[in-house]
Amino acid sequence: MRWLRALAAAILSALLPGAGHALIRDWLRALLFAGLYFAALAIFLPPPADLAAVGSVSESAELLATEIDTVGQFVLSFVMVFAAVDAAIRALGFPPGPNGPDGTDGPACPECGRELDEDLAFCHWCTTRLERPETEDAAPDEEEPIHS
């Protein structure tokens, strides 16, 4: 099921950079990629007045094709592809997220590696059902001899 989530994250990030990261709950990267993409759009797109003046979708596509130079097309494409690849890699768990097995103090999910709440029977990050080890009954304390 992990690969399906990675595929969905990659497709969402290809459509709108940052959306795939939001799917896998990597909020900082989602904001980073979305901000980077919208900043590139603001820099390389023609002014909104020019876009509003066109009458049809085909005319606006022609305007975008002629107005955005090669560098702008490269930057926008690079951000989209990099966001899609990064979201897929992060969804697969390579490298582990910020709360991965190396950075946790408590128990970690065996599936996604993120820190767990000890009271839950499932991982609230990836919804994997957790099997808790049976707690063995502690041996009763030995009674201390009574000193008289």
Question: Quick summary of this structure?
Answer:
The chain is mainly α and 148 residues long. The protein has helices at 2-15, 19-23, 27-44, 48-53, 57-67, 70-92. The longest helix has 23 residues, at 70-92.
Could you give the topology of this structure?
Blueprint: H1 2-15, H2 19-23, H3 27-44, H4 48-53, H5 57-67, H6 70-92
Describe the structure.
- This is Zinc ribbon domain-containing protein.
- It comes from Natrarchaeobaculum aegyptiacum.
- The protein is mainly alpha-helical and 148 residues long.
- It folds into two domains: 85 residues; 31 residues, no CATH class.
- 52% of the residues lie in helices and 0% in strands.
- It is built from six helices and no strands.
- α1 runs antiparallel to α6 and α3 packs antiparallel against α6.
- It is elongated and about 100 Å long.
- The mean pLDDT is 81.
